[in-house]
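User: Can you help me understand a structure? I only have the sequence.
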Amino acid sequence: MNVKFTFDQAAVGRRGYTMNEVHRTIKELFSIHDFPCTAEGDALSFKDKGHGDDFAAMWEIIMALLRSDWFMDCAASCVWQDEDGEEDVLVQAGKVRGAS
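Assistant: Let's start by predicting it. Here is the structure, written out as tokens:
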């Protein structure tokens, strides 16, 4: 399992943040559970550790981010990938928020 994030630099700037601050925040959330950052740069990617509770812990972080206005404003993509394929979580979250 892994999750990959990209961010809209203009949106980040409008919020008064820098990309470094956004990346640091995301990395800190995943580091709490010792999930390794496997890609840095334009995209941040985090991988599971192969433990039984990784799925729940990763989704706890993702759900917290999806409830956060700053994340929804700044994120360009949030792609979940596992053995069943991949899903753009941001698109699904937008559908849920739009239906509310």
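Now, to help you interpret it: The two ends are 29 Å apart (CA to CA). Residues 19-31 form the longest helix (13 residues). Let me know which part you'd like to focus on.
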